[in-house]
Amino acid sequence: MLARVMVGLFSLVFPVMLTGIGLEKFGLIIFGLQVAALLIGTIWAPDTAGKSLEDIEAERYGTPRALADA
């Protein structure tokens, strides 16, 4: 939800920023945001190597109620 709101706000601000600071500076801002997203995703992404989907779901959301009762 937050991503959709941010994209909506960005689409409103984009033309104003582009005419105000120019394409080159605006491109550098976008590049910086992409680098920040890469670093955040790399640092805080969970390690899922060798785990099944069920293991990942149980680790992230807990054991489903139907399986816990069985």
Describe this structure in words.
The protein has 70 residues and is an all-alpha fold. The protein is 80% helix and 0% strand. It contains four helices and no strands. The chain has helices at residues 2-21, 23-44, 53-61, 65-69. Helix 1 runs antiparallel to helix 2 (23-44). The longest helix is centred in the middle third of the chain and has 22 residues, at 23-44. The model has no long low-confidence stretch (mean pLDDT 86).
List the helices and strands and how they pair.
Blueprint: H1 2-21, H2 23-44, H3 53-61, H4 65-69
Helix pairs in contact: 1-2
The outline comes out as elongated
Structural class: mainly alpha
Parts with pLDDT < 50 across at least 5 consecutive residues: none
Provide the residue-averaged pLDDT.
Answer: 86
Give the distance, in angstroms, between the N- and C-terminal Cα atoms.
Answer: 35 Å
Q: Determine the strand fraction and express it as a percent band.
A: under 5%
- How many beta-strand elements? 0
Largest sheet entry: none
The arrangement of helices and strands along the chain is HHHH
Radius of gyration: 20 Å
Provide the descriptors you would attach to this structure in a database record.
70 residues, 80% helix, 0% strand, elongated, mainly alpha
Care to give the gist of this entry?
The protein is mainly α and 70 residues long.
